[in-house]
Amino acid sequence: MSSAPTNPDLLALAAQIVSAHVRHNAVPMDTLPRVIESVYATLSGLESPPPPVEAPPPASSKRAYRRRAALTPETTDAPAPKPARGKRRGA
Predict the structure, then answer these.
(1) pTM of the model
(2) 5: which of 11, 15, 26, 77 fits an S-S bond (Cβ 3.0–4.6 Å)?
(3) Where are the domains of the chain?
């Protein structure tokens, strides 16, 4: 490895992950140190919290209500659909 590991627990976890990977996959011996470094670096990155993400501003409930009201049949100029007729009884 290029630098000394700072967290022995992460190193042990990285070793377990890499050994499980090598047990089930063919990994050339010359790439094994890079695989260990990569897994360790990934695990180290998980320790730090992710950068904060700004939440979008809340939507206006009045605007949403107006949009819904504009789509109701009572507010359109088109006539409301007539109810379907059923079969007449006794005819």
Answers:
(1) 0.46
(2) 11
(3) 8-47
